[in-house]
Design goal:
The complex is a heterodimer of chains A (282) and B (288). Chain A is mainly alpha-helical. Chain A contains 13 helices and no strands. In chain A, 41% of the residues are buried. The chains are: A mainly alpha (282), B mainly alpha (288).
Amino acid sequence: MKRTRLPVGILFLLPSLMGFCLFYIWPFCISLGYAFVDKPTGGSFVGLRNFIELFRNQSYLRGLFNTVQFIAISVPLNMGLSLGVAMLIHKMEKHRELYSLVFLVPLVIPSGSMVSFWRSLFAYDGALNGLLHLIGIGKIKWLDSNLALLVMVLIFIWKNLGYNMVLYLAGLSNIPREYYEAAWVDGAKPRQVLAHVTLPNLASTSVLVLIMSIINSFKVFKEIYLITGSYPHESIYTLQHFMNNMFASLNYPKLTTATIILVVIVALFTQVMLRLERKASE
Amino acid sequence: MRGKRGKFIAPVLIFAGVLFLLPLIVTFINSFMTEAEIALNYTSKLNVFDLMDGIAENFMRIRLIPQRVSADQYKEVLVDQPSFLILLMNSLKIALPVTFGSLLVSLSAAYGFTVWNWKHKEAVFTVYVVVMLMPLQAVLVPNYIIADLLQIKDSYLAIILPGIFSPFGVFLLRQSMKALPPAYFEAARMDGASDFAVFRHIVVPQMKSSIAALWMLNFIEYWNLVEQAVIFIDDYAKEPLSVYLSRLAEGRMGLVFAASCVYMFLPLWFLTLGQRDLEKGIELSGVK
């Protein structure tokens, strides 16, 4: 029985596997060569010099640091907030669908549609500073100081809270009611119920939320790029800005070197995640 | 105890919801203002009246009530300026092939991953996940290399083909397929149904929500194309809308809001049509 099934499985997988290899894996392997030469065309072999230089490159280090910092701040914050909203909606008896629609809307709005709004809100002479002016607070450089990071986190949460919320809503409704009833009967306080019933049962949902949040955290680049261009304030100069600019200046060796380091980091991270997921679902 | 706290839930949610919708509400209302009013609101330059009033500092104003309701912006964008509609078509020309192509390829691959008992299958799947987690910039050089080799650098195919074979769809659909009871496949096969028949008549109908969700998520993604457009497209006439809109904001601010509304209409409409499917599809991607 199994013997006849084996090749058919391959057949179904084949189109994807071929395209995936052709458009991602194979060209990636070709691009590896760039990491060890000094010029994209006719360059000579330089060993590991590109890697050493990259770790001395101020803008690369800045981008890497900012990306890690952004993920470290925004992802947990978004997870917490989306869980909060999901728990509130879960408690509602009516209009649940309407509420979740509201929080899902930002997810589908194209970044380009919101650029003017964000710009006129956060500009130095923008509406937010205008409001603050009314209550006697001086102008704040929202996009041109370290506060830009805050703006970026805000936009990220606005856009991505809905996705996580849907996952958490599903996770919440999968927790059997009896668990809660047992906890109430035992006289557990709300905080204890959260810590001992709700959160442990959401562990495997949270791993997926984490994976999706990280994918989506890279996508906030679209908004930031459209709002502030290729060279924003240094607090929001991310790895993607660096890689984009390397591509624009045709510096493939540096870009490929940066990509390889990123692949290693992401591959390690994925291993950890998959292990976590297995543990969480046990 | 619970009842008392319950009273605050609706107001908190409504407040948060209004905050979330505010950018949309502003954009929508502002799209019905005249170009002149927009020009006046979205500048911090002092005008004669400000000077007479002794105002020394001015800010952009986000107004929620138009002085005069007008559809001029829409007329300008949709009727008088053919370039906008051309760019709208460009966005469709990229989004539609990617969404449908990716659906076919991913659905088939997800089924392949489900029924194929190969011991290294999980390792292959991990490679898909690693690539899925990469930011777009990381696949730029590979994309560029292959586009150069296939000589499609200057065509939308350079964006469409990698999109069709993007690993995200395979991940999403495979996760959801895990939710189908294995007995389903087995029973049908016992009855002598071929693998393709099981796929076509049992798996696909059961996966409707996930299929709709993947289609929508991909549509959102490629309708909202930014990075690849910046890299691959040099010709202004071939740009998708996202890049054009951010440029329009610097030129004719007075048209931006109507253009933005037209741009977001399709994904919003799809969301209202398919909210349930989208939610169910996202949920199922989390099922073990």
